[in-house]
Design brief:
about 725 residues; Immunoglobulin-like; 9-stranded antiparallel β-sheet; 8-stranded parallel β-sheet; 15 helices; globular
């Protein structure tokens, strides 16, 4: 039987004996531990050529020898200290300038095993080595920070004078719509309907966000764009006046005929949209909007919070001033001809044209074939490359001073893997030179390792090592609500297995700032997933997303989110009970006046708990117990030990949790800090006795419990 399987089966490790070659030596593999946190690596983010001390933990008087294996070297580690339960081994080695990989070789009698980022193993797999990248660090402010994602059109309308008007312009087959009913469900093809949320609206709700406990505001795109999602950017240099400030409002809306049909030029439908052209090309509006944004960031910073922006650099929009398929800039003063309009455009090389059919060349490369999303052609345009790097610098520098970038579809940028990595290396240099404390956080699905080498991204939106395992375990539903897997619902082995594997793809610095979301603008709302139902707006209707949801299961998800390594990221409205299928239904307006105040209070309570203990931000994690419908994990550092128990099942469970593995004394007491279950939630304290390193916990049906060592040893 594989060693990992044997270890997973140990429910009471203190009473487990491994007899090595018939010797009466008791080997305790569950005492073995190391990771990249400060307890086990010092400094945690060493510089090039600096010495770093690596520590390894084992059971007291349990091992004969431990070796640190790194870059072809084999170094015997020194036992430097012990406590009542563990021995600690150390080696100090000098780094070079390149990434260093390492693992541990453990000797107990004639028995030999290994320890890497997956834990104890009986053979070495380089894929799971620990690694250190010299001079790679991530911003301390982002480690474990509470992020709040805002899809700005749907958050709050603070300035009705900048709202997109009915038929202000033409986009993807129809005129724009100004939504009059804030609580209306988004239309199935709702890309051109606008609710009116804006930057002034976010400013007016900063008291709410601060009271909730938010530390970082992540804004979906805010630059000039024709859609409500704004991933089709028109002008990277300016905040869209429709969410900013309109001070000059001239021109006409599009007209309709006597039968309600929209009147427009079929070839150039927006040439007559002169109101729109004035709003988004006139420098008075653009500069006023940028000034409003400056004031917004200053106010956020004054409150001790931060702001990150969405960077969409793989593609732009067909409205973009560099392409100008809509001929918006063709006659606007102060703008060069777009590459769609003229072959002589200074932006010709910014795009890959497939045919020589100017003027008005429609044959260009669109991302995934979408002609509204022209792919940017960096390889053939050094000017484009330099321009976008300057955009990266501009918004993290004075006077804007944003605190970093979230990078949309970052792995798709460029036409080859080689160029993609080259671009992000140069982007990192540009951004970090302008603002060394800015974060670079990418959207990515799958293994991010090749981008997390210290020279490109800081971290990613954490799908593989957070969102997906949690949604499968708690709901059995895939993150789009497109598939149900009963075999994964409540499956602790699958949960810990996928988490364990995916977390090894991060170094500690990246994991601690990873964006841990339950929902976002691309996937169904987590509260809707708790109905364990497959569906979308076009198949079930939006009302069905509200039906059969389980708020108790939702609270379990939030508890894991607030206790797991990384940056808990709340998608606006989740905390208020907002439901929704995947895009576009997940983009419902925040339910002001109809909030679920109980869920908001629940978030506040857990956010307070999260922020109270540094161990939750930067401590180690250990998986303590996994059974059907039940998981338990611990967070620990030199100061604190915290245990989380999640019972997904509908039956009461009594479980025995080996808290000794966190360094909790064999005979002591622990205190319950928080509980959620079918009856509600409470921070009323309850004491647990620790007996021989084990606590015995009765878990009510569908419950989550947070327990802390209080250090009151007998």
């Amino acid at each position: 039987m594989d060693l990992n399987v044997r270890l997973a089966q140990m429910s009471k490790p203190l009473k487990t004996q491994f007899y090595i070659d018939n010797l009466a030596m008791i080997f305790n593999p569950q005492a073995l531990f190391s990771d990249g946190t400060q307890m086990y690596r010092n400094p945690v983010d060493p510089k090039e050529n600096e010495y770093v001390t690596i520590r390894f933990r084992a059971g007291r008087e349990n091992l004969d020898e431990v070796y640190l294996i790194y870059d072809g070297e084999r170094c015997k580690m020194r036992k430097i200290s012990n406590d009542r339960m563990f021995d600690y081994y150390e080696s100090s080695i000098q780094l070079g300038t390149e990434r260093m990989e390492y693992y541990f070789e453990i000797h107990c009698g004639t028995f030999v095993c290994y320890y890497n980022s997956m834990g104890v193993c009986d053979n070495v797999e380089n894929y799971y080595n620990f690694w250190i990248t010299p001079s790679f660090s991530t911003p301390d402010w982002a480690k474990g920070a509470i992020f709040y994602q805002i899809y700005i059109d749907r958050f709050y309308n603070g300035d009705r004078g900048n709202d997109v008007e009915d038929d202000e312009y033409f986009y993807i087959g129809e005129g724009t719509t100004r939504v009059k009913d804030w609580n209306k469900y988004p239309a199935e093809m709702g890309v051109r309907e606008f609710y009116g949320g804006d930057i002034t609206g976010v400013m007016k709700k900063l008291d709410y966000l601060q009271d909730l406990g938010v530390e970082v505001i992540y804004l979906n795109p805010v630059f000039v764009s024709p859609s409500n999602h704004k991933y089709d950017i028109q002008d990277y240099d300016y905040i869209d006046p429709h969410i900013g400030r309109i001070v000059k409002d001239e021109g006409e809306l599009l007209k309709r005929g006597e039968h309600g049909e929209l009147l427009y030029d079929a070839k150039h439908p927006n040439k007559r949209a002169t109101r729109y052209i004035c709003r988004v090309t006139d420098k008075e509006n653009l500069e006023a909007s940028n000034q409003l944004f400056i004031e917004f960031v200053e106010e956020v910073h004054r409150r001790g919070m931060r702001v990150i922006l969405d960077g969409v650099f793989n593609h732009c929009g067909s409205f973009n001033k560099w392409l100008d398929r809509e001929c918006i800039y063709e006659e606007a003063p102060g703008y060069a001809k777009g590459a769609f309009v003229s072959a002589e455009s200074p932006y010709h090389s910014y795009f890959k044209f497939l045919e020589n059919t100017w003027p008005y060349n429609t044959d260009y490369d669109g991302w995934w074939g979408h002609d509204t999303l022209p792919k940017l052609n960096y390889e053939d345009s050094r000017e484009l490359f330099e321009y976008v790097l300057e955009i990266g610098r501009k918004w993290v520098s004075p006077p804007f001073n944003v605190d970093g970038w979230r990078l949309d579809v970052a792995a798709d940028l460029g036409h080859s893997d080689e160029y993609n990595h080259y671009f992000w290396r140069e982007f990192r240099k540009a951004v970090k030179e302008a603002n060394p404390n800015a974060i670079i956080l990418a959207e990515h699905y799958g293994d991010p390792t090749s981008w997390l080498q210290g020279d490109q991204w800081d971290t990613v939106m954490n799908y593989d090592a957070f969102m997906e395992p949690i949604t499968w375990f708690l709901t059995g539903v895939e993150k789009h609500s497109d598939e149900y897997r009963g075999d994964l619902k409540g499956n602790a082995d699958a949960f810990f297995g996928s988490m364990r594997h995916a977390m090894t793809r991060f170094c500690t610095q990246s994991l601690q700032v990873a964006m841990n979301e339950l929902s976002n603008h691309d996937h169904s709302r987590f509260l809707t997933r708790t109905n364990s139902r497959v569906g979308r707006t076009n198949s079930c209707g939006p009302e069905a997303a509200n039906e059969g949801v389980d708020k108790t299961v939702f609270r379990l998800g939030v508890m894991i989110q607030m206790m797991w390594p990384g940056a808990p990221t709340i998608y606006y409205g989740d905390e208020a009970g907002l439901c929704g299928w995947t895009d576009p239904d997940n983009r419902r307006a925040y339910p002001w006046g109809h909030e679920d105040m109980d869920l908001i209070d629940y978030h506040k309570a857990l956010i307070r708990l999260h922020k109270e203990y540094q161990v939750i931000r930067t401590g180690s994690i250990l998986f303590l117990l996994g059974e059907y419908n039940l998981i338990s994990f611990g967070r620990f550092d030199e100061d604190d030990k915290i245990v989380v128990v999640i019972n997904r099942g509908e039956e009461e469970r009594q479980v025995n949790i080996p808290v000794w593995r966190l360094g909790v004394a064999y005979q002591t007491r622990m205190a319950r800090l928080f509980i959620t279950n079918r009856e509600g939630y409470s921070d009323e304290m309850k004491m647990y006795e620790v007996d021989n390193g084990i606590i015995h916990v009765i878990c009510p049906p569908v419950s989550g419990i947070v327990i802390k060592d209080i250090g009151d040893a007998y």
